[in-house]
Amino acid sequence: LKSNPSNNEEKEAQTQLTKSDELQRLHSQALSAYQREDYVAAISLLDEILAVCVWDAELRELRAECYIKEGEPSKAISDLKAAAKLKNDNTEAFYKISRIYYQLGDHELSLSEVRECLKLDQDHKQCFSLYKQVKKLNKQIESAEEFIREGRYEDAINKYDSVMQTEPEVPVYATRAKERICHCLSKNQQATEAIKVCTEVLQLEPTNVNALKDRAEAYLLEDLYEE
């Protein structure tokens, strides 16, 4: 404006300055909402700011935190992935993405993201600890699935028992393991046990199609046609 004053540019400069002041006000309000744990309000305010400040990694990370608190992990992942690209060596973003995928039960994507963190910093304590856990779990699940493909159902059951011991804190892994054990028992013609385990799965997930099919197979073995 100082270097080349003209009516058009002055008007544009004043508009930008007004917008800048408005965004700073919204930013203060967003931080205040976050601190008082009103995450819905914080997200709404951050949406307005990020519509203009598209490339702000810190704001995306803050909105991701709000999404996590509001139980919207997929939206958090989207913001964190953007933040990982926008900020160099953003190990924290990769760590958080990996943690979210892990909590959702997607161990393969979790492993992929935590490896990205370790590429940036091989001594990152949190990432290395998570990497060891996810790698172990991933290996057990892959091994169990290989046993199923080979028809070695007893070995697969034992391996899925190990999965539940490796990760007792995240319920989705126990549910998936029981679903696969139910499948193995049904295929192995251990009908009584299959019905018991499949029913446990269906109490947690009434619409689990795999467990319904495997329990149906087990009922057939027992001549329980109505069931």
UniProtKB/TrEMBL annotation:
<keyword id="KW-1015">Disulfide bond</keyword>
<keyword id="KW-0802">TPR repeat</keyword>
<dbReference type="InterPro" id="IPR019734">
    <property type="entry name" value="TPR_rpt"/>
</dbReference>
<dbReference type="GO" id="GO:0034975">
    <property type="term" value="P:protein folding in endoplasmic reticulum"/>
</dbReference>
<feature type="repeat" description="TPR">
    <location>
        <begin position="91"/>
        <end position="124"/>
    </location>
</feature>
<protein>
    <submittedName>
        <fullName>DNJC3 protein</fullName>
    </submittedName>
</protein>
<dbReference type="InterPro" id="IPR051727">
    <property type="entry name" value="DnaJ_C3_Co-chaperones"/>
</dbReference>
<dbReference type="GO" id="GO:0005783">
    <property type="term" value="C:endoplasmic reticulum"/>
</dbReference>
<dbReference type="GO" id="GO:0051787">
    <property type="term" value="F:misfolded protein binding"/>
</dbReference>
<dbReference type="GO" id="GO:0051087">
    <property type="term" value="F:protein-folding chaperone binding"/>
</dbReference>
<keyword id="KW-0677">Repeat</keyword>
<dbReference type="Pfam" id="PF13181">
    <property type="entry name" value="TPR_8"/>
</dbReference>
<dbReference type="Pfam" id="PF13432">
    <property type="entry name" value="TPR_16"/>
</dbReference>
<dbReference type="InterPro" id="IPR011990">
    <property type="entry name" value="TPR-like_helical_dom_sf"/>
</dbReference>
